[in-house]
């Protein structure tokens, strides 16, 4: 994707020029403009790729449809015309949901202050407020910078004052979720404003609503992200600790899972959130003590045909296996066989192969007895098959190499069986193909007892070579 940006008007003018100067039909004119700008390295993700309506008789430029809708909504808000708001809000929400380019154009043309005013105007009308929050959520998707301090307080107030209304809670939480994704300052502001107990409270109070539970769990998970490239250090770890220690987050999530034993989507989201909260040894153990491991293992067994669920469960098992005692609990619960089955069953899926190898790698770390179980269950062979299936996927290659190393580092008797499977060539190929694999691949080869050639790198100093 290109890094250069252009204005919507620049794109629209290029399309119009193709129509008037080169006599192209509208669709061809748009395609030609897209090709022209993309060949120049321009990022068009925020550009509406459509023909703008023709100019009026007096020569005045016409606007794209979403801006016309926004103008109508703005007039209704300015005139406090409550009867017209539902239709205008619904129209704007529908257009915002179509694509990022539409809501980006609306955002650049003042949609947020209009919607903020609409929310204020609708405060005493439950149905109208719900419509306004849903539209605000659609606008904020992918545009967290639009939200300001007043908007944060409005959302927090809506969640505080209507805790028993599942639909209003869902709409407000969706706004918070969109506002916090890739935006560290919004996350910190919302946490300071008290969002965490509101989210866990929503899961408890609306534990029978799949949408509320899934969305609130997702919002909690986003509070633990460190995905804003504009901020060198976030508060992800602190937020995870607050969710667990101050808001009983682990118990809330695991108890919520009991109501959705047949809903893989909700269970997958709960697993993903639990994995983000496994930041301390004692948290990992608490997940097991509360029954979280049992539901993960059961979910993996029951949802083997659903790759998205399998990936999330493997990631969660990998996270809780950071605790050495939990490693044993996972093995005792039959987790190794299910992980190997997941890798083999989804061998064409690089993400599942990566997470599966990583989970086995954690189970093998510092645990020779677990290494034997993994070997007997076909774990080493599955990892090597994953390497063979995904030679260009550095993450798969790296995790598989780390698993092989962990299997043999304290169990040298496993080296020959693994070498007999063709490990040496596969690891050497990974080392040659991926610079990021060099250290782990070299360590794996060394612990397997193979001769390792040192890769010499010039450091810039005379007489100095780096390995």
TrEMBL record:
It comes from Climacteris rufus (rufous treecreeper). The gene is Armc6. One of its GO terms (biological process) is hematopoietic progenitor cell differentiation. ARM repeats lie at residues 291-335. This is ARMC6 protein. The keyword Repeat applies. Keywords: Repeat. InterPro entries: ARM-like, ARM-type_fold, Armadillo. The keyword Repeat applies. It comes from the Eukaryota.
């Amino acid at each position: 994707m290109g890094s250069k940006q252009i204005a919507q008007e620049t794109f629209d003018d290029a399309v119009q020029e193709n129509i008037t100067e080169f006599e192209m039909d509208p669709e061809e004119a748009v395609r030609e403009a897209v090709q022209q700008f993309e060949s120049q390295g321009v990022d068009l993700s925020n550009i509406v790729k459509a023909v703008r309506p023709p100019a009026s008789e007096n020569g005045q430029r016409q606007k794209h449809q979403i801006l016309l809708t926004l103008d109508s909504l703005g007039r209704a808000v300015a005139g406090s015309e409550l009867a017209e708001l539902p239709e205008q809000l619904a129209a704007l929400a529908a257009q915002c949901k179509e694509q990022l380019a539409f809501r980006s154009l609306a955002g650049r043309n003042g949609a947020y202050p209009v919607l903020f005013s609409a929310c204020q105007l609708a405060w005493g009308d439950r149905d109208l407020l719900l419509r306004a929050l849903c539209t605000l959520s659609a606008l904020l998707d992918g545009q967290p910078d639009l939200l300001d301090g007043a908007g944060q307080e409005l959302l927090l107030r809506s969640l505080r004052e209507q805790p028993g209304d599942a639909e209003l809670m869902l709409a407000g939480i969706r706004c918070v979720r969109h506002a916090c994704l890739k935006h560290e300052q919004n996350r910190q502001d919302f946490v300071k404003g008290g969002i965490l107990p509101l989210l866990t409270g929503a899961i408890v109070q609306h534990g029978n609503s799949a949408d509320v539970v899934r969305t609130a769990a997702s919002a909690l998970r986003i509070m633990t992200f460190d995905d804003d490239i504009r901020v060198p250090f976030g508060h992800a770890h602190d937020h995870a600790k607050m969710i667990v220690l101050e808001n009983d987050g682990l118990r809330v999530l695991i108890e919520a899972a009991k109501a959705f034993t047949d809903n893989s989507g909700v269970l997958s989201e709960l697993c993903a959130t639990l994995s983000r909260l496994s930041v301390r040894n004692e948290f990992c153990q608490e997940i097991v003590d509360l029954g979280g491991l049992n539901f993960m293992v059961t979910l993996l067994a029951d949802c083997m045909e659903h790759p998205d669920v399998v990936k999330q469960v493997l990631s969660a098992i990998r996270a809780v296996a950071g605790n050495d005692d939990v490693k044993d609990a996972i093995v005792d619960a039959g987790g190794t066989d299910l992980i190997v089955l997941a890798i083999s069953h989804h061998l064409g899926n690089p993400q599942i192969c990566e997470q599966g190898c990583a989970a086995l790698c954690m189970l093998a770390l510092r645990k020779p007895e677990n290494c034997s179980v993994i070997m007997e269950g076909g774990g080493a062979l599955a990892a090597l098959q994953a390497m063979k299936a995904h030679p260009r996927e550095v993450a798969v290659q790296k995790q598989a190499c780390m698993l092989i190393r962990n299997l043999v580092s304290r169990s040298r008797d496993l080296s020959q069986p693994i070498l007999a499977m063709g490990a040496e060539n596969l690891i050497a190929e990974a080392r040659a193909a991926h610079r990021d694999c060099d250290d782990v691949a070299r360590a794996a080869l060394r612990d397997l007892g193979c001769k390792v050639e040192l890769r010499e790198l010039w450091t810039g100093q005379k007489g100095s070579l780096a390995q």
